[in-house]
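step: validate -> pass
step: tokenize input -> pass
step: predict -> running
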Amino acid sequence: MNALKAGDLKDTHRTVMGIDFPNAVGLAAGLDKNADYYDHLAEFGFGFVEVGTVTPKPQPGNEKPRMFRLKEDCAVINRMGFNNKGVAYLADQVRHKQFKGVLGINIGKNKDTPLELAHEDYQKCMRQIYHLPDYITVNISSPNTPGLRDLQVGDATQKLLSAIKETQQELTRKHGRYVPIAVKIAPDMADQDISDFCDTAKALKIDAIIAGNTTSTRPDLQSNHADETGGLSGKPLTDKARKTISLLAQRLQQEIPIIGCGGIFTGADAQAHLDAGASLVQIYTGFIYRGPALISEIRQAIHQAESKTNP
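step: predict -> pass
step: emit ->
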């Protein structure tokens, strides 16, 4: 498909979390972990970009090799382990860039921080970057930090998100601006856990949910790298991600917006995520395989779908 003309942007913009997005296609976290080049990535036509995941202290991540391209499956397996230069470095990068687009910063906990103290790591990150992005994403769904996904269920969720919301209120008063909080969950959650998570998110007034991250499951794969440990992303994740979006949409009933992420390789994939209940979409592995052409294709598909709905 051809790229959209500049004048078509008005047909794909939308307001989500109180933020005006010029189009619905975002770059997911993980590609620019340290905010080194997101301003250049945005020039490909993204409506928003998300940097990180960043942690309070720098950490090297897991041992290499830790990322594998599964060409036969149009997929990637990674076990990066939140490798990053620390929140202070990222904050300095963002502070010195003249970026005018919509920016999200994705935050996580350090590997050596006990799970019961995880909320303190997220709070430390928030206090250093709160005044910089348009929104903040709380990543509790990477499969590559031991125990992290335990924060998605039960009392641990309530404890973490309550602390996050208290810090958000504190920093809103300090900086005089409200920065929305999105929470990124895994596509591997059980249906009941998704339902319980939605109840907690609604009660605490979380601003958005990103569905989702990589999967720890292994569908039928053809690549020799299929047995590598880590999170799987790409085409094998498409249906699983869409099911998670649908379950969230059924439970949330439009009270909290959903950002759909996972397995988007075509404009039709992105539109199907939106039809399932997402308000925005993010790409990562599809962008690795297909490049900037995918962004234009998605924008064109959304533009055409909206033109049919609102002729």
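step: describe -> DSSP finds nine helices and 13 strands in the chain.
step: cleanup -> pass
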